[in-house]
Each structure stands twice: as C-alpha cells, then as structure tokens.
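ok, trying the design again with the full structure, not the truncated one.
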C-alpha cells in the first residue's frame, strides 16, 4: 500500500508520521509544501496559462502563516485576506501588497487604514458603511484605492447552511436591487479617491457543482450590461470567489479545478457576447482547495472506554479546540492509525476529543485495528480551517505546525506553552495580596 513504510507506519509527504509525532509531540498539524505547490501548479496550468486576462488569489483564511505567504508569493498567486490580522501577517511576511485583496463584511477604520497605508491592491467593499469609511481614509491619506463591490447574486450553493454566502438572505455583500446598486456605482464613479474596477461574488464553501458559478456569472453579466447602458460604467474585473470542494471522506467526490474554471470562463464568454460586453479580467480565490488535502493532524490515543453493545470511545489528546469543524458543521473526517498500517480494521470506535463537551467528537464510527493507549491517529484533510480556526478552549495550548518540504520537516509554528496562555493576563494589584 502507498504511504506505508517498512515499519508499517503511515507516511505523509515522504515522512514517517509516527516519527514526526515522537519528534514534535502531538497534537501536531503537518502540512505538505509539495502538495500545496502542486495545487498552485494546477491553477497555473489549467487557468492562469490557459486563459488570457485571469488572476488567482489564495484565500488565506483557510490556513495562514508567514511561511504560507512565502509559498503563495513564490507560486505567483495573490492573497485574499479578511481581517487586519491576516493583512498584518502578509505584510510582515513581505507579501507584495499590490497582490492582496482585502475582504470582510465589517472592516474597521483601523483595518481599512492599514490597507490604505500599505497600498493593498484591491479592497472588496462589502457595504455602504465601509464605502463611507474608505472615502474618508483615502482622502486623509491622499491615496487612490482600487476596489471591487461584493454583491449578493441571490444564488444558494449546496453545502452546510453556515458556509453558504451567495443567497439573498446573507450578511455579505450589496443586494442586487437596481436602485441600490446604481446609486452606489454612480457615487464611486464621481469619487476622486476610489476607483471601482468591478464586482465580486462568493457563493459558499466546499461546493461540488459548477452550474451555480455559471448562474452567478449570468447575474453579474446582466448587472454589467445594465450599468454600461445606464451609467456608462465599464466593468474591468469580475471575481467569482472560491469554494471548490475537496475530499474529506469517501462520501466526497471532488472535481478537478478545470471543472469549475472552464465553466466560469465559458459562462463569461457566452454572457459577455450575449450582452455585447468586453471580457473583464476574471479572478478566482480558492482557499480550501489549495491547502485542505495538504494537511493531516496527528494525535495520540489515550483512554479507551468500551460500553458493551453500545460503542467504544477512543479519546485523543486534542479535539474541538484544534478542529472545531465537526462540532460546527457536522463535518466528517477520515483517519488512520499511523503505527498499525498493516493491521486489519477489525473494530469500530468513535474518536472523542478531550474537551469538556459531549459534542467534542471528531469522528463517529471509524474502522480501526484494535486500539491501545499510545497509538498515533492521523486525521486526513485537515489543512484548511483547522489551524486557522483553532482556539484555546479548556485552556488547551494550540498545536505546533510542521511544514514538510522534500521529506524534510520544519517547524513553522511553535506549540503553545502554558505560559503563552497567560501572556496577555494582568492580575489587578488589589487582587494580588
Ligand atoms: C470572499 C471569500 N473568498 C474566498 C473564500 C474561500 O473559500 P474556500 O476556502 O471554500 O475556497 C471564502 C470563504 O468561503 C470567502 O468568503
Ligand atoms: N470555516 C468554514 C469555511 C468558511 C469559508 C469562509 N467564508 C469551514 O471550515 O468549512
């Protein structure tokens, strides 16, 4: 079997995961640089080099560290950030700010100011409140910023209800009611400090269907036509968001990138031809698709509780704080017992986290070899939205992150210590006695 070495250990990106667990401790996020670069290569081959006038950015909310910024920069992709913290990380990593797109539905004055001062390439303006702030900041800073408006196309993707974003009833984006959108476009056309380049929509995350992207393009093309005819506004850029789904378990049937991008490009051509519009620059911004399958998390099995005729719980040394997705979205994961790859999957266990929460179950009914304390569990496809969504609930220190490049593991985020947990705390002097 592939990914198994002579010691019958699970290997990931060419490294023995049991040895990684020993060297770096558990829980441990392990990320393969080669797998990330392969996905970036696929974006170049099937999108950037295949079509004219296209761009791609990595949605950094999926997984962001300074090392990741360096990888994305060297792959020639832009970066989508969604907060001052993500922007700051990118700036500190030296990411070229002209290739950064700044998203978010409630950007603060400080966040926008940071973006303006650092000449971020595009601000994706979500609402009128933000536009007002940006007008003031750009005037104060004497800068001209390029923006896209995020609009809500009124299309609902088929995914968990917490990660759909394109439907009418969404907190994101400017509704596509003709008067509202006309007013706001007319307003920025007159602005000295803001240049509207076009529009952005994002339909949701972990999507497997391309027809909704086509439907989104259809809606935006109609908007482009109306704005051209009504206001003489020419849309130069159209950002179709991210959302391309990946494989977590055998229930997922992900599509190759070109399944989405070819559909998007075909729809753009058809719609622009139909409405007699020039082709805008098309931008995509996948996050999960680039990094999700490039990560695994290693845990050590501790207590095992067998409830006869009901179920067996095997508890790990992490759980909800390092992976909240099962609790939040009922997300399903697959896992392997890394030190027993040659053994038959003769038993079924439920993998429980160590949090004081009954809902802290990582995987229900996983087939495994007979388990014992000390076994190493490797949970697959944890590269996206695990490290980035981790918390310190129950005061569990967050795991370290190891990046593997050419079979060489390198620590890129240290494990949190108990002292880190106390870093920001102050005991008021009157309580110190
Ligand atoms: C605006 C925007 N762009 C891109 C993404 C990336 O999504 P995904 O990781 O599903 O590709 C998201 C998250 O869903 C988003 O909100
Ligand atoms: N955090 C979500 C994805 C959100 C995407 C951002 N809009 C997940 O883990 O699936």
């Amino acid at each position: 079997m592939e990914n198994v070495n002579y010691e019958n250990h699970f290997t990931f990106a060419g490294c023995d995961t049991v040895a990684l667990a020993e060297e770096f401790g558990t829980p441990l996020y392990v990320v393969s640089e080669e797998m990330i670069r392969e996905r970036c290569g696929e974006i170049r081959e099937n999108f950037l080099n295949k079509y004219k006038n296209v761009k791609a950015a990595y949605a950094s909310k999926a997984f962001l560290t300074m090392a990741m910024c360096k990888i994305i920069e060297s792959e020639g992709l832009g970066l989508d950030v969604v907060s001052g913290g993500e922007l700051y990380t990118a700036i500190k990593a030296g990411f070229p700010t002209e290739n950064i797109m700044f998203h978010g539905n409630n950007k603060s004055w400080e966040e926008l100011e940071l973006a303006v001062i650092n000449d971020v390439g595009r601000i994706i303006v979500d609402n009128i409140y933000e536009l007002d702030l940006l007008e003031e900041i750009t005037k104060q800073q004497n800068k001209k910023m390029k923006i896209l408006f995020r609009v809500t196309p009124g299309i609902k993707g088929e995914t968990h209800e917490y990660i759909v974003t394109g439907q009418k009833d969404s907190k994101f984006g400017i509704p596509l009611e003709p008067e509202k959108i006309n007013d706001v476009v007319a307003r920025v056309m007159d602005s000295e400090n803001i240049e509207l380049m076009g529009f952005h929509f994002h339909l949701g995350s972990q999507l497997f269907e391309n027809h909704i992207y086509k439907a989104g393009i259809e809606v935006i093309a109609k908007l482009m036509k109306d704005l051209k005819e009504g206001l003489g506004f020419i849309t130069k850029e159209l950002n179709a968001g991210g959302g391309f789904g990946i494989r977590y378990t055998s229930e997922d049937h992900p599509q190759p990138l070109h399944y989405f991008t070819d559909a998007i490009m075909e729809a753009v051509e058809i719609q622009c031809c139909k409405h007699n519009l020039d082709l805008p620059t098309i931008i995509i911004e996948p996050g999960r698709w680039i990094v999700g399958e490039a990560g695994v998390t290693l845990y050590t099995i501790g207590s095992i509780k067998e409830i006869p005729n009901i179920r067996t719980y095997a508890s790990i040394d992490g759980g909800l704080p390092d992976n909240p997705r099962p609790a939040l979205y009922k997300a399903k994961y697959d896992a392997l017992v890394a030190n027993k790859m040659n053994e038959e999957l003769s038993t079924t266990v439920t993998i429980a986290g160590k949090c004081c929460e009954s809902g802290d179950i990582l995987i229900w009914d996983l087939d495994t070899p007979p388990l014992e304390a000390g076994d190493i569990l490797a949970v697959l496809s944890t590269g996206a939205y695990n490290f980035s969504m981790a918390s310190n609930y129950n005061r569990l220190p967050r795991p370290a992150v190891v990046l593997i490049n050419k079979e060489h593991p390198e620590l890129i985020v240290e494990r949190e210590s108990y002292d880190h947990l106390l870093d920001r705390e102050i005991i008021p002097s009157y309580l110190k006695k």
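Keeping the full-length input from now on. The radius of gyration is 23 Å.
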